[in-house]
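By way of example, what follows is a protein record of this kind.
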Amino acid sequence: MAFTASLVHSAILKPSSSSHGELLPSSSNSTSFMGAPVTLSRPALSGNQTLPRKQLVVFSRKMSGLEEAIRIKRERELQGVTKVKKRPPLRRGRVSPRLPVPDHIPRPPYVDSNILPEISSEYQIHDSEGIARMRAACELAARVLNYAGTLVRPSVTTNEIDKAVHQMIVDAGAYPSPLGYGGFPKSVCTSVNECMCHGIPDSRQLQNGDIINIDVTVYLNGYHGDTSKTFFCGDVSDAMRKLVKVTEECMEKGIAVCKDGATFRKIGKKISEHAEKYGYGVVERFVGHGVGTVFHSEPIILHHRNDKSGCMVEGQTFTIEPILTMGSIDCITWPDNWTTVTADGSPAAQFEHTILITRTGAEILTTC
């Protein structure tokens, strides 16, 4: 769960007047087309002769035909990415009261406080018992997420999804980690269309053509398992489907470079490279994080190109959870201090897995 960016107060953040920290902007990365240099020459002219204007234009086009073709191809690709039917902007519905959790279920330490917890500076590296408990928590989170996805259809409210997810989690003897985290009022995050993350379930009905990210974290036997996925609601446009597909691919490419000794910055590099092929933006403000007995800890996982130092260690667990947008990566946080939408109203998608670093790669724990 990408709560982390709201909490980090280290060198990678700059001060902000809001309750949410923002990552320092990285240098802009633009895609350019480069080839062998082309030398242009003029036909030899005598005296004050000049080449007719029409002839000059034709000559220029011949010399730059390849560059022009590449430019047109790129423009068409970008048009294909950003062309999506304009939908009414997301509006907040009514938020129902917080759901109860049976007294016998262990709670994380932050539940009784509305203060946003600090990020733990300790990396979470587990022994065999800890890994077994992480697997159990993550497997439950994955099952809950899959169930939540079956509920997505037009006319269903995000509040109904939250209620069903809440019940499944407590029936399994676990606590829904978001509930009470820094005052968050619900058991799951539901982020629709232009909502990047941290959407609060409410009375809004899902509409045909919506996309919705459902972010599930459970606290089971003292360990958090964290995962999310973007689902389709009804008949979703091809442009939106492509955004969702590429976002999932970005997460997978980020996971693929992980192993004992690998640098954290490789994750952002791989994700950015793949997103840029399709003209999508990678949101910088929200990040992945260490997860285990503590909900959010170091390492902070940046999904964009960066110079972050540090290497992965065998036995370590953390999340990779990129958010991609069709347009601006800038965002606006609603007055509820959680719901964060794209500044230009363009659609956003997110996927997330909790992974375990092994000697030769990474094991995805949030599967079932």
Q: What stands out?
A: Residues 128-150 form the longest helix (23 residues). The longest strand covers residues 211-220.
